[in-house]
Design a protein that fits this description.
Shape of chain A: elongated
CATH topology of the largest domain in chain A: Rossmann fold
CATH superfamily of the largest domain in chain A: P-loop containing nucleotide triphosphate hydrolases
Shape of chain B: elongated
Radius of gyration of chain B: 23 Å
Distance between the termini of chain A: 63 Å
Order of helices and strands of chain A: EHEHEEHEHEHHEHHHHEHEHEHEHE
Number of domains of chain B: 1
CATH architecture of chain B: 3-Layer(aba) Sandwich
CATH architecture of the largest domain in chain A: 3-Layer(aba) Sandwich
Strand content of chain A: 15-25%
Oligomer: heterodimer
Strand order of the largest sheet of chain A: 2-5-6-1-7
Order of helices and strands of chain B: HEEHEHEHEHEE
Distance between the termini of chain B: 63 Å
CATH topology of chain B: Rossmann fold
Number of helices of chain A: 14
Strand content of chain B: 15-25%
Helix content of chain A: 40-55%
Number of strands of chain A: 12
Number of domains of chain A: 2
Largest interface: A-B, 57 and 62 residues
CATH superfamily of chain B: HUPs
CATH class of the largest domain in chain A: Alpha Beta
Helix content of chain B: 40-55%
Largest sheet of chain B: 5 strands, parallel
Number of strands of chain B: 7
Structural class of chain A: alpha/beta
Structural class of chain B: alpha/beta
Chain lengths: 383, 189
Amino acid sequence: MAMAAGDQTQGRLKVFIGMAAGVGKTYRMLLEGHAEEEAGRDVVVGLLETHGRGETAQVAEGLPIIPRRRVRYRETVLEEMDLPAILSRAPELCLIDELAHTNTPGTEHRKRYEDIEAVLAAGIDVLSTLNVQHLESLNDHITELSGIRVRETIPDAILARADEVVLIDLTPEALLERLRAGKVYPSERIDAALNNFFKIENLSALREVALRQVAEEVGAKRLTTELVGSREESLAADAPHAVGERLLALVEPYPGAQRLVRRAWRSAQRLGAGLDLLWVRAPGKELTEDEQRSLAALRQLASVLGARMIEEESDDLTAAVVEVAGRRGTTYILIGRSRPARGLARLRVPLPQRLMQRLPGVDVRIVADRSQRSNGTSKEALP
Amino acid sequence: MSAAVIVAVACAGALLGIAAGYWLPPHGRRPARERLPGGRRILLPFTGQEISRRSFEAAVRLAKAEDAIIMPAFLAQVPMNLPLETPLPVQCARGMPLLEAIEQRASSQGVPVDSRVGRGRSARDALRKLLEQEHFDRIIVSADEDPRIGLSYDDLRWMLDRVPAEILILRPAPDDDRRISTEAVKGHF
């Protein structure tokens, strides 16, 4: 890993990501730490969570560890990573476990990833670890899959900023074998783990999510490099780049918009992409009762589907769409059938063309009304 | 008034009209076929991946007779261990295609449709929340859904007792197994 090369002021971040605890992220991070040390670099362990795993503790031997500091919170003394000590020690490479950890109040930052940003800003390279369910954008999806909500999350943008993301993969069967052998949790926690989170169906789903996440992250990185170029610019990129495709459906508060939203959502599901809905409201426009009801129904639909409903006020529809698409990292825009133009508006460039001109590289799709399709071409499932 | 003045006023009016057509922002009136009739609203709730065709046909007949809107509603159920506002993509993957199928089929028969999604701890809770938010004149319920996963007989009794709307509970004849399912969706949805 040629981390020392390149940017002199900012450290480089490498994240080991996995589907669940116990797949070997920390172990692999420590192995890389040793390799870097043997290559002559100044390596320290800033924070290590062995969770009582003998294998992990064993592989950490030989690497200098910065002791944790004690932080008092509500009559309890807790141990946290010593950020000032790391910055003062100023190693070339620092190993910091559990990227999504929430710090005890009273430390410099609320979240560990903010500590890591401070370490990177000091020019120190960082290796860290993360479970896929801690990614904010995947949290709801994984909660529904597994029935367990993970409270500690990180914005996807943090992963997007990583210079390297390495997937530590293990089959669910192998992970369960490790769990039963006591290599993940101490014996008294094994039964509870097997009965709750560590079920084969949960792990299979999480593995799929982790594999897809890293594949998309690699694709997004490639695109970011091609389109943006410098690392500073890519750092400014928002979360959407971490998950590859992002769809934006243009809606209005009328019943037909739900059809568009459903179609957009299905496309988003197939692409494994995020979905935003955008309604551009004319300034000062008063909604009729029907429109208010349609808007409430759209918001409810967006919420159930996990889409984000964005409402902007503007007279210039194209400009508003362009602005939101840029802000959200949209790669795909879906629009419904246009209303017939009136008067000289017939001479105006249609919205899809305007969007294609203003948003090069973004796909624009016009969603048809399937109910208008002739029955002769459709498939039926009715007896 | 001279003919020249009349012609000038007419030309000015025409120009103004054309210019207004061009400059007015695209938020104007929707075509008549996209607007809903202001009449009665027929709710057609469901929880699974199919509904009886008899219920659907009853809703269509009534809607046509009364110039009403059909409002198919997918009732999503949030597990107790999750917050009520949790997105439910797995359930939606089952419910949305049926919503689409109902909408396509009703629209093709000239009946306006305005879909809804309800969300609650149970099908009844989702329905109750939906009824709290909006008024419906009539509710058509299929009594042949699996009561273990959809609306139970207790729920139907609750509706009859509590819901201020006409309620039509249809139980098809045992040999009437015609259904509208997600397979009826036209296109790649």
